[in-house]
Amino acid sequence: MHKRSMTIAGLCFFALALSIVTATAAPPKYVGLQYDEIARMVIAPATAPPPGTFTDAYQKILADAPAVNANPTPAPRRGGLFGGLLSGIDNATQQAEQAGNTMQLSLTDGTLVRLAYYNGWVRTDNVVAKTATIDKCAQHQVIELDLARKTYKIVDTNGTAVPCVTAQPAMGPPQRVNEAPGTVDLTITSNAVNLGPKSLQGIPTNGSTDTTQMAMTNATGSCSNGSFGVENERYVSKIAVPRRFCPLPKGRTPTTPVDMVVQGGCKPTVHGSSSGMYWMRSSDRLEIYNRMTMLSGESAGRFQTVTQRGNVMWLTKPQADALFNVPPGFTQTQ
Fold first, then answer.
1. Residue 116 is inside which H or E element, if any?
2. Are 289 and 8 in contact (CB under 8 A)?
3. Among 156, 154, 135, CA closest to 146
4. Are the beta carbons of 253 and 197 closer than 8 angstroms?
5. Cβ distance 40 to 112 under 8 Å?
6. How far apart are the C-alpha atoms of 61 and 19, rounded to whole Å?
7. End-to-end distance of the chain based on CA atoms, in angstroms?
8. pLDDT per residue as tens digits for the range 195-242
C-alpha cells in the first residue's frame, strides 16, 4: 500500500513537472504570413458567394482543376515536308485547349493564388498550375518555380520597379489621356453602414458596406458628363499585411474612383458630403471577404467582383526560409 502510494505520488509529480515545462516553454516566433486568395468576376444572372463560403469555393477549384502533367506527351511527329509544321500545330492546339480550360475555370470557380510574405519578399503560388514566383524586391531578383517539373529560373530585374504580386497588365494598347483643359462639377454621395462582427474561417472580422455615387455635370473641354456608382461590402480582420508591391514606377496612377472618372486635363469641382468612402479606409489589415458591385452605367447590377481569403497561417523562420528559396532537387533553366 505504501509502495503504491509512492508510485502514484511520483506520477503526479512527473505530470505536474511536465505541465510546468509545457506551460513555460517559449512559443514559436513567427516571421511571415501566408494565406490563400480566391478572386472572381460575377456576371448576372449568377450571384456572388456570401461571406463564409471560402472553404467550399476552395475545394471546388481543386476538384475542377485539370491535372498538371510534369512530362507532357507531345503530339506524334508526322513525316513528310509539312510533318513538322502539322505536329507543331497539333501541340499549339493542345496548349490553346488547356489555356481555354484554365480560362473557363477562372470564370466559373475563380482564380486561386497563395500569397506569402517574409523579410520584405513576396511569394505568389498559382495553386492550380503548380507554379510560383518569389519576388525579392530589394535584391532586384525574381525566382520562377515550376513545381510540377521541379525547375527554376532566376530573373535579374536590374532595379526595375515591378509589382510583386497579383496586379495584371492591362489588355490592349495603353489608353491615351486627354490633357486638354476642362472643368466639371463632381457631386459625391457616400454612406457607410457598420455590419458588426463576424467570424470567417475562424478569424474575427468586422463588416461594413460602403455605397458611393458620383455624378459629373456641366462638363467643358476635356471633361465629360456621366455617373459612377459602386457598393463595397467588406469584412476586415485585425491581421496586419505587409506592403504588397515593390517600389512603384514614377507617374500618376489612378488610386480612387475619382481618379478613374476624372483624368488628364479635366479639373473637377467637388460637391457633396460623405460618412465614409471605402477607398479611404485602412488597407493594411487583411480583408477576409470583399464584394464590389457596380451601381451605374451599362454594368449596373450586372457586374461584381468578389475576393475571399482563407487558410491563413503564420510562418516560423525555418518554414519561411524553405518557402523563399529554391527547393532541393530543382534544376535551373534559362
1. strand 111-118
2. no
3. 154
4. no
5. no
6. 43
7. 77
8. 999 999 999 999 999 988 889 999 998 898 988 888 999 999 999 887
